[in-house]
Design goal:
By secondary structure, the chain is an alpha/beta fold. The chain is about 35% helix and about 20% strand. It has helices spanning about 15-25, 65-70, 85-105, 145-160, 180-190, 220-230, 250-255, 265-275, 285-290, 300-305, 315-325, and strands spanning about 5-10, 30-40, 50-55, 75, 110-115, 130, 165-175, 175, 205-210, 215-220, 235-240, 245, 260, 295. A 7-stranded parallel β-sheet has the order 3-2-1-4-5-7-11, with helices on both faces. β1 (about 5-10), α1 (about 15-25) and β2 (about 30-40) form a beta-alpha-beta unit. α3 runs parallel beside α4 (about 145-160). It is globular, with a radius of gyration of 19 Å.
């Protein structure tokens, strides 16, 4: 894939949580000659060897095939989490926009496509053991995020059948956090006016321990490392990405010095549903249902075939994110801008 001047990589969604880490990682890679970041709003931030182009993948007016021409690989990260009350809007960007990206990759004859799938694409699975990449990817149908990620897994099945000359890699990471993503993720999941400084252990009288709430986390920079590694090998297919240990109420209680208290799943869901229905909380109760059913992932394939090893533990990831939340941390792009509320 490399040439005398290095590879040309196009990154869609280059200004978000994952995009900023991937673009920065690629800009520091001597094997990469240039990076073209695509985003709806061009940032002032521009790492070495990086250019930006204003592109909305949901727009039919965007000539993605022309944009991809001459690229050695396309890393597709663009995604819209909101509005959760209007799933048709997110479907246009996330599903129809992604299919437009896939079609443009084929039209431009780009040899490699690396797609951001997710643990959210997986069907409900166990919390007491790990599953590998062969676990079914039908998602949780009530949650738009999972439904869209699962649909794209089927779209890529068809794409790979019709375009065997394109090497397709599907990354399925756990929940991704970093210090700079704190403000963005607070706005996406907690709302614009949720005070970040409230994320302090001394203000928590107890920690809700909800049955099924056991998930995996990963530092966004560690996920970016996997994306970069996939560019420099011939690996194909899906790769689970997560750090140890799994995160649950017991681990959080030890971290925060707070006592876990069992809370019935129905009570927690009712509270979330009420807040979401009143537009006080962006995260939907359907996503909450999905999170309680997500399987834990075995990441052996990424370790063996990509030689990928996360540098941060899940505990370190959560600690860093909470610090960022308290301080209103962000990054110099529109989606990632910092803001401290409260």
């Amino acid at each position: 894939m490399s040439s005398a001047t290095g590879s040309r990589i196009v990154v869609t969604g280059g200004t978000g949580n994952v995009g900023t880490s991937v673009v920065r990682r690629l800009s520091e890679d001597s094997r990469i000659g240039s990076v073209l970041g695509l985003a709806r709003r061009i940032p002032a931030w521009s790492p070495a060897h990086t250019e930006w182009s204003p592109v909305d993948i949901a727009s039919e007016r965007s000539d993605l095939a022309d944009t991809f021409a001459g690229a050695d690989a396309v890393i597709h990260l663009a995604w819209a989490f909101q509005p959760t009350h209007d799933p048709a809007t997110t479907w246009r960007t996330n599903v129809l926009g992604s299919i437009r990206v896939f079609e443009a990759v084929a039209a431009a004859r780009v040899p490699t496509l690396v797609h951001a799938s997710s643990v959210g694409a997986y069907s409900p699975g166990p919390k007491d053991r790990m599953v590998d990449e062969s676990w079914p990817t039908h998602g949780w149908p009530d949650a738009a995020y999972c439904r869209e990620k699962a649909y794209l897994e089927r779209a890529l099945d068809t794409f790979e059948r019709d375009h065997p000359d394109v090497r397709v890699v599907r990354m399925r990471p756990a929940f991704l956090f970093k210090r700079e993503s704190a403000s963005e993720q607070r706005r996406i999941f907690g709302g614009r006016f949720l005070p970040g400084p409230l994320a302090r252990p001394e203000l928590l009288p107890f920690l809700p321990d909800i049955p099924g709430l056991r998930v995996q986390a990963l530092h966004t920079d560690d996920a970016a490392k996997a994306y970069a590694l996939a560019l420099h090998c011939e690996a194909r297919g899906a790769f689970n990405l997560a750090a140890d240990p799994p995160v649950d109420a017991e681990l959080l209680g030890e971290m925060l010095g707070t006592r876990p208290v069992r809370l019935p799943r129905a009570a927690a869901r009712s509270a979330i549903a009420a807040a979401w229905g009143l537009h006080l909380l962006p995260a939907s109760p359907h996503l909450f249902d999905a999170v309680l059913r997500l399987p834990l992932m075995d990441c052996t394939r990424a370790r063996v075939e990509l030689d990928w090893h996360p540098r941060h533990t899940a505990t370190e990831v959560v600690e860093e994110f909470l610090q960022g939340l308290q301080r209103g941390e962000g990054a110099p792009t529109e989606p990632m801008k910092g803001r401290k509320v409260g």
